[in-house]
Amino acid sequence: MEVLSQVWNIIRDFFVNLYQTEHRGLLLSAITIVTLLLIKAILTRPIRAYVYKRALKEANADNFMLTWTFVWIVIIVIFGVISLSGSIQALGISAGFLGMIIGWSLQQPVTGVAAWLMLILKRPFRIGQRVIIAGIKGDVVDITLTHVILDQVGGTIVGEERSGRSILIPNAILFTQTITNYTFEVEYILSEVPVRITFQSDWEEAEKILVGAAKQVTANTIEITGEEPYIRAELFDAGVLMRLRYRTTPEDYAKDVNDIVKIIYKEFSENDNVEFCYPHSEVLYSMKNPPPPIGASEELPTDFSRPSPRGGIR
User: What is the pTM of this model?
Assistant: First the structure.
């Protein structure tokens, strides 16, 4: 123990005497640089392993590590130069001031990188999934250090099909925006096709046609999910609104609706027991009194007050 104590005293006296000389600035600068290099080396290994393991693309991990290295080089150079003054107090004040300046000027980029780290940690969505961010709907194409790139859905068209436009959303806004993920936990979403039928239509026949159309179009999905299409109905003024509901993928949403509607339309056209309910008007003539003799000048009475027995708007 005495030997270790003597060695420690010798090292301490050496640095104290050196610090009191005119070369104390060089000494403080060297100590600062070595300390920062050690901190960088200690932090880099676990961060590198984690980033490369969780990053969705290796190129994004490469860019993050390059940014990490560049930031450390800048910090080491700045603090190394400041340390040449030989004043620890000046070093501390400069560190605080520099941190404030960097935090203010690089707020958005730093927030963007922090959001990217949040994305690879929490993974609220992945590449290829359909999401809504800041009111913009699209399929995720890439997640970079600064932006989320979406292949826009809708936009120039109405519906759930890709428009071909690429939307770049800054990562920084992800902390304050609600994110809707179509397939966060499940791959298939619930979709529906509303069909209006008249009161005179055969309910069971209409339901059979609707469910059969959905089964025909989504057979593969039914086999995977085990969920059959079903009907939810409600009454309205002119008839019955039947909502056909079934499972599908976001990518097949528009195509499945089109195919199902096509089959339903064909089946309804060939079936006399079911009829679409649509807005139309009918005029019916009714004679309460027998017609006058031929040649009589009296006009035939008419009555337009009796409503039509068929569904629809009269």
Answer: 0.62
